[in-house]
Write a structure and sequence with these properties.
The relative contact order is 0.20. Strands 3-2-1-4-5 form a 5-stranded parallel sheet, covered by helices on one side. It has a single domain, classed as Rossmann fold. The longest helix is centred in the N-terminal third of the chain and has 11 residues. The chain is α/β, with parallel strands linked by helices. Helix content is 29%, strand content 18%.
C-alpha cells in the first residue's frame, strides 16, 4: 500500500513573511508539496516571540515553517546574484506564494509578469491578510 500525499511532486517557492502566506504554504507542505521558503537575512520579524522552551527559536517558526526547506537571500542587493538564483529556481517550481505590500514584488523583480516570462506555467498566489492598501 502506497502512502503518498496528494501534493507530492508539486514544488512551491514561498516568499511569505507574516502569517497568511506561511500558513498557506505550511498546509501545502503538510499535503506533500516541496516548499522552499525564501527568507530575507536579518528580517526583524523572521523569528518572532514567543520563544520555544527558553531558546531563541520562535514558536511561530516551529509551527508554520515545518516541512519546508529554507534559503536566505537578500533580494534588495541586486549585485549579489540573489535574483539570478530565484530565476533558476523559478524554472523548476509550479507555484509561487508571496505576501508583500503592493508594489514590492515589482521592485524586487519577483512579480508575476517577470517570473511568468521565465516559467509561463507557474501559479502565482499573492496573499494578504490585511487588504491591498
Amino acid at each position: 500500500m502506497s502512502t503518498s500525499l496528494p501534493l507530492e511532486g508539486i514544488r512551491v517557492l514561498d516568499f511569505g513573511r507574516m502569517l497568511p502566506a506561511p500558513y498557506c504554504t505550511m498546509i501545502l507542505a503538510d499535503l506533500g508539496a516541496e516548499v522552499i521558503r525564501v527568507e530575507a537575512p536579518g528580517f526583524i520579524f523572521g523569528n518572532p516571540p514567543p520563544f520555544y522552551e527558553n531558546t531563541s527559536v520562535g514558536a511561530f517558526n516551529n509551527i508554520l515553517m515545518r516541512n519546508k526547506k529554507s534559503l536566505a537571500l537578500n533580494l534588495k542587493k541586486k549585485e549579489k546574484g540573489a535574483l539570478e538564483i530565484i530565476h533558476k529556481l523559478i524554472q523548476t517550481v509550479d507555484i509561487v506564494v508571496e505576501g508583500f505590500r503592493p508594489g514590492v514584488t515589482k521592485k524586487l523583480g519577483i512579480d508575476y509578469e517577470s517570473l511568468s516570462k521565465i516559467n509561463p506555467s507557474i501559479v502565482y498566489c499573492s496573499i494578504t491578510g490585511y487588504g491591498q492598501f
